[in-house]
Design goal:
- It is a single chain.
- The protein is mainly α.
- The chain has one domain: Glycerol uptake facilitator protein (Up-down Bundle), CATH 1.20.1080.10.
- The protein is 67% helix and 0% strand.
- It is built from 11 helices and no strands.
């Protein structure tokens, strides 16, 4: 992108400034050692599981008619942990490393992008499966919470290919939007609010399969374990 100076006197960052705030950090992230990216993505895959756990807990403490709203409101917790800790989440990196590629437009940057995506996806999936296995195979959470975990997991793993594809595109767009708007502010309070605003709709949207992504892997791992209760929500 050509150099362009933002006009002075504005109360908000310009699109160029937001672009630049994403570009340089993204270049550094793409050059990180493989081990560093793997460990960060492994941690992120486990931490994102708290979205699943928080949703089930919120649903367990309200009446049945308010369970979906409560679970949706609590769903962003894992994303908040990941974003504020600067961990590497694959779905969050569907935008940032693409910016350097569009800037450079060469094979080297493209290969760095594929390398980063591959490492993050592997680390995230392993971390998510570990978290899901712990929830399902150990007494780390009370038995009373298992029906709620099971219900959310069953919802996230339902739906045909077309539904899942549409829901995944919608959820991925929201996460990419989150990455962009986060670069528009240095305020921690604003960042917390933006993460919540961009991720709560992923759980609130009526499509059951909208929980797709790394968070959905946690749900799939716990749902497939066969250990949780089979009670209706």
């Amino acid at each position: 992108m050509a150099e362009q100076k933002p006009e002075a006197g504005g109360t908000r960052l310009t699109a160029v400034e937001i672009h630049d705030n994403i570009l340089e950090p993204a270049k550094k992230e793409m050059d990180r050692p493989a081990a560093s990216l793997l460990w960060s993505s492994l941690a992120s895959g486990m931490v994102i599981g708290f979205s699943f756990l928080a949703s089930a807990f919120a649903a367990s403490i309200v009446s049945e008619e308010h369970r979906h709203a409560a679970a949706s409101a609590a769903y962003p917790l894992g994303f908040i942990f990941v974003v504020m800790a600067r961990s590497e989440l694959f779905t969050e990196n569907t935008l940032d490393p693409v910016v350097p590629l569009l800037e450079q437009r060469n094979r080297e940057t493209f290969m760095k992008l594929l390398r980063m995506w591959g490492l993050l996806l592997i680390g995230n999936l392993v971390g998510a499966l570990v978290f899901g296995w712990v929830l399902a195979r150990t007494p780390v959470v009370s038995a009373e919470l298992h029906p709620h975990l099971q219900h959310i997991a069953a919802q996230a793993t339902s739906g045909g290919f077309g539904t899942v594809l549409y829901a995944g595109i919608f959820a991925g767009w929201l996460i990419a939007l989150m990455s962009w708007v986060l670069a528009a502010t240095h305020s921690t309070a604003a960042q917390l609010a933006l993460v919540w605003l961009c991720t709560a709709p992923i759980a609130a949207f009526p499509l059951p399969a909208l929980h797709r992504g790394i968070g959905g892997s946690v749900l799939s791992g716990s749902h497939g374990s066969g250990r949780m209760g089979q009670h209706a929500w």
